[in-house]
Amino acid sequence: MSNEDTLISKLIEETCAGPAVNDQPNNSTDLRKYFEKRLNQVDFISIGDYLDQHHLTHQSLIFQNNSSCYRLSYNESVLDFPSNWSVFQSIKNSDLIYVDQTLDQDFLLDIFSEVSGAFQNLLIINENQSVKLVFLPDEESRDHVNWMRNFFEKKNALNVEQEKEAA
Question: How many angstroms separate the CA atoms of 94 and 52, rounded?
Answer without folding.
Answer: 22
